[in-house]
Amino acid sequence: MFATFKQMFNRKNKDLQKKVLFTFAALFIFKLGTAIIVPGIDKDSLTGNLGFLELLNAMGGGAMEKFSIFALGVMPYITASIIIQLLAMDIVPYLTELSKQGISGRNKMNQITRVVGIILAFIQGYIYSFTYVSGSSPIQYLEFALVLTAGTSFLLWLGDQISAKGIGNGISLIIMAGIIANLPNMFYTAWNTLVDFSGTTQSIALGITMFTLFVIFYIAIVLGIVYEETAERRIPIQYANKSSNSYGGQQSYIPFRLNSAGVIPVIFASAIISIPSIIASFIKNDAMTIFINKWIVMTTPTGLLLYVLCIFGFAYFYTFIQLKPDELADNLNKNGGFIPGVRPGEETVEYITKVIKKITFVGAFALTIIAALPVLFGMFSNMPASVTIGGTGLLIVVGVALETYKQIESQLVSRSYTRGRRRR
């Protein structure tokens, strides 16, 4: 890893350095925007009680709590992408056809997703304005919603610029930057909650021990997600027109990551869990709010179970969207390849499907354990919701950081290979 960063700052890789600097500049603009409050809103008019929307606040770098111009973040786009991908599964024929048209179809679906995301941003912006800003007129609520929608639109554009001119996936990096901005405050809150210097020596020692265990849990999360992201299952393949032997041949294989969906299931599950909370915030129904706080909030046993089930479901859903067994088997057959001991055609499709199901189950199970650790710790230590939910945020941070690191590493390898060929 250190060698990679050393190589990245080599004078020969100035173009890569420019991409990294552009990415940091764009993320700085995002963080700067989280401090700008929506024009026309007085701080005293904010209710200041986010309740079950702490997760969205954590992903937005605290923007929702301040009700800044980036209060919605990119979550409306994430919600829209879930809706569009579900509708593309033989529900809406037009979207299903687009999903089968390769790059051009995906580009059209991405445009549709953005339009739907902006519409959802306006709806959510009005809901949040009506819920958390008191004493305003309906016209003012519409103005606030327009500003919040413009903020989300700008973040989507900024994410595109990062993807095109910077390093990594822009949308994911924006979410990661928001969470990182909240991490120091999260650990500070955990320290103040667990360690009370006004108590006895025994209680202080117990608090420090609990905080140490809290830090160990987070280190375990980092190590766990690193292992899960790098683990893979390799299926050996052979080609009819190539031969391999023990003296000089190189074995070909198809690598399947243990967690092919990355942190997407966690982000999607978080978005789904927040939907009932958004509805309850808008209608201001006390009975529904009590029900959500008792059964659906992530820090309750039933809410945690629902969160785990959502992670499992989205892990399978997103994995099979990315890794299509039919296409893999067809491409393998076209290139004259086959899996030893497995017949080409339907038998290959069934074998690949079986392998993907098995490794996805293991990957999703590991992902849920890592995501549940901070929440379970919070249940037994009475930690604030902002701290326990931060564990999910850290999971996203580590996953996105690993994906970005891999992209930097692949670009460095590509540049080294290109320079080597030029020397020849």
Please describe the topology of this protein.
Elements: H1 2-8, H2 14-33, H3 54-59, H4 63-66, H5 75-87, H6 93-99, H7 102-132, H8 138-165, H9 170-194, H10 201-230, E1 232-239, E2 252-257, H11 264-283, H12 286-296, H13 301-322, H14 325-334, E3 337-338, H15 346-381, H16 385-388, H17 390-423
Antiparallel strand pairs: 1-2, 1-3
Fraction of residues in H or I helices = over 70%
Inertia-based shape: globular
By DSSP (H or I, 4+ residues per run), the number of helices equals 17
**Beta-strand content:** under 5%
Looking at this protein, list some descriptive labels.
424 residues; 3-stranded antiparallel β-sheet; mainly alpha; globular; 17 helices
What does the model show?
The structure is a single chain. With 424 residues, this protein is mostly helical. It is globular. Residues 244-248 have low confidence and may be disordered. The protein is 73% helix and 4% strand. Strands 2-1-3 form a three-stranded antiparallel β-sheet, with helices on both faces.
Concise account of the structure shown:
The protein contains 17 helices and 3 strands.
